[in-house]
Design goal:
about 150 residues, Leucine-rich repeat, LRR (right-handed beta-alpha superhelix), three-stranded parallel β-sheet, alpha/beta, globular, two-stranded parallel ribbon, single chain
Length: about 150
């Protein structure tokens, strides 16, 4: 999904209708390092996180990329535990992680996610992000080529 805003019902649709075939999900948006919006709207009614549902129901999921939105450490650990080692690519920049657990750090999160995936894991470093993602005046010039490259590599 390459959008300016995440459509939660679309994510729920994916887990319901593509649970046998969905193998790659890229949620990518431009990134303003000063203000990263939340991926999901806070739900006070107890609705389940649609990414957790995708991790639980989509047994073929091998690749998940979250860039440009804030996502919780709890959710990352949950996704890693539900998918396990079959999730071959799991990418999120460090600055997009919302640390909600007390005493959680990047090191502890990396260890928890890595244990669930049965390999070493670390969040992406900002320096590794494509220039099209980092918000700048020139970013839109390279956005189309970035999206096409990602689509062709999936």
């Amino acid at each position: 999904m390459y959008r300016l805003q995440v459509n939660e019902p679309a994510l729920e649709f994916l887990s319901q209708w593509y649970n046998g075939t969905l193998n790659c999900l890229n949620i990518v948006d431009s990134l303003n390092v000063d203000e990263v919006p939340p991926l999901l709207v806070e739900d006070h009614f107890g609705r389940v996180d649609p990414l957790i549902m995708i991790a639980w129901k989509c047994h073929s999921l091998e690749s998940l990329t979250l860039i440009g939105y804030e996502y919780s450490d709890i959710g990352l650990i949950g996704i890693a535990r539900l998918c396990g080692p079959k999730l071959l690519h799991f990418d999120i920049p460090e600055l997009c992680i919302d640390y909600q657990l007390v005493n959680m750090s990047s090191t502890i999160l990396s260890k928890s996610v890595g244990e669930a995936l049965k390999r070493k894991w670390r969040p992406m470093e900002t320096e590794r992000l494509d220039t099209a993602i980092l918000e700048s005046e020139d970013a839109w010039d390279s956005w189309d080529s970035y999206v096409l490259n990602r689509l062709n590599s999936s």
